[in-house]
Amino acid sequence: MRSLEVEREAWPIDGSFTISRGSKTSAEVVTAHITENGLTGRGECVPYARYGETLDSVVGQIESQRGFIENDGDKTQLQALLPAGAARNALDCALWDLAAKKTGKRVWETAGIAAPVSTVTAYTLSLDTPENMNKAASRHSGRPLLKLKLAGPGDIERVTAVRDGAPDSRIIVDANEGWTIKDYDAMVPKLLTLGVSMIEQPLPVSEDAALAAVDRPIKLCADESCHDTATLDGLLGRYDVVNIKLDKTGGLTEALALQKAALDLDFEIMVGCMVATSLAMAPATLLTTNAVIVDLDGPLLLAKDRPHALDFNNYSVAPPVPRLWG
Predict the structure, then answer these.
(1) Handedness of CA 219, 222, 228, 233 (dihedral sign)
(2) Which of 72, 165, 246, 321 gives the lowest tally of CB atoms within 10 Å of its CB?
(3) pTM here?
(4) pLDDT at 263
(5) Does the active-site annotation cover 75?
(6) Which residues fall within 8 angstroms of residue 283, CB to CB, at 6 or more apart?
(7) Boundaries of every domain in the chain
């Protein structure tokens, strides 16, 4: 007999985290625990207001599937019962974890994919003044890959300040839909001279058709514009890379399908995350083998993490130990 437990948690951020849409000081997550015969599978998700999600709405969606889960529902059937999003992510990842514990096999063995290995992850610098971003870049100048949160006005000054603070780091930038097409045209030549190697989601989703008509000397990555396999065709000719996040795909099941479909269409893969604990990052490490950019630094931005947390030594993220997930 199975049981389902749903838990809300708040994990303090080390300071604050700011993007173009605002700031926060804690990561508000929802965790699903599915227990069967003394074994428990866990999945963590982050409700995201950008997609109309709240803690209450996500908990409600998970609770709506209690009967299905407790009557041995599986992750394949789950895909049709909930839309892509945070709630399905928590349940899907908990079911993968439970299956691993029941069979004694790691999740990647069950999924039939290569075992993940320790991989360099980006480290995100929060949106701030150029002076403060320069200081942050100097503190992290030894990292091989820095990701900068941008917003439009003042962005060239921010990137210049970071480049001065971290002259040897590879830099990618994320506008979180904060630019206009005029911003894009004005900034790209300057970002190119500053050594920026990728721009993530420069325009709002509703306006990104304009990207089909511009030069892309710096690779463009779709984040808010890419959720699941159904969104891929609309990205052709606009983006070079897609950012796969489990809270957008609705779990590892769809994420694996999205990765395969994206590679078949010649997109490159970025694996991203929300700000959350190692439990939320763990399933995403299975996607890193085929990724050109890995951005699973969420736990590094927190004041503390879960027991048996992911190993982030040498600026990299390692696969989870079984006591964490999978």
Answers:
(1) negative
(2) 72
(3) 0.96
(4) 98
(5) no
(6) 43, 93, 96, 107, 246, 251, 252, 255, 325, 326
(7) 2-110, 119-317
d(CA 157, CA 245): 29
Q: Are 144 and 120 in contact (CB under 8 A)?
A: yes
Query: Which amino acid, one-letter code, is at 265?
Result: L
* CATH code of domain 2-110: 3.30.390.10
| 77-120 pLDDT tens trace | 999 999 999 999 999 999 999 999 999 999 999 999 999 999 99
The answer to whether residue 245 is catalytic is yes
State the fold for domain 119-317. TIM Barrel (3.20.20)
Token output for 143: 């990292």
Residue 181 is inside which H or E element, if any?
helix 181-193
- Catalytic residue from among 75, 101, 219, 245: 245
Supply the DSSP symbol for 302. B
Q: Which position among 149, 248, 260, 304 bears the catalytic label?
A: 149
Paired tokens of 103? 């069979």
